[in-house]
Amino acid sequence: MVWKPALVIFDCDGVLVDSEPIATRIIAAALTKAGLEMSGEAALHQYLGGKLTRIKIKVEEDLGIQLGDGWVEAIYEQQFAAFRAELKAIPGIEAALDALDLAGVQYCVGSNGPLYKMDVSLAVTGLYERLEHRIFSADMVPEPKPAPDLFLHAAANFDVPPGDVAVVEDSPPGVRAGVAAGMRVFGYGRDSGVDRLKEAGAHVTFENMADLPRILGVGG
Hints:
- With 220 residues, the chain is α/β, with parallel strands linked by helices.
- It has helices at 20-34, 40-47, 52-63, 71-86, 93-103, 115-124, 128-131, 149-157, 172-180, 194-200, 212-216; strands at residues 7-10, 106-111, 135-137, 165-169, 184-188, 204-206.
- The protein has 11 helices and 6 strands.
- The radius of gyration is 17 Å and the shape is globular.
- The protein starts with 6 loop residues before the first strand and ends with a helix.
């Protein structure tokens, strides 16, 4: 029998919306200004899937400096302006959600980002209305990814056991969180590369979102 999930949890950045290159470009510029010279590509590799407040703490420890209380908010402000000008949905994601709707499979969002960030990114890309009331942030739980807290919290809200949940992730921390939660993890490696996701423990990897319904067993 082909396994079919009862619930699919999507990461947001890099899975639903094509925000990672934009977001990490801005982080890289801010870190370079602070004294840690970094390209957008290097920031994407190093900080993909990380929670911005935790990135700030690590950089402060590494450089022995204080970035200031308003640093995270300033980064988000710059990201939001760029999102409104540039952000698009991941190609193929709307068809994938349509296939889940047709198959009667529930889905939601589970992201390390704050709710107000997802309010912007999902609204700009036209995805907010179909995901409203199904958006979960690491701010709701004790520990962000790679801890399993967020995914377990989301699954509990749908009353679905972890073994019946599929997680779609594009970052190693997100993959590790799904594995730790006892869920089946599908690693989307268009930007991050499938090798990194396999190393993190992804059960299945893919690079084209149009393939997701087929590999989830819900169509295609």
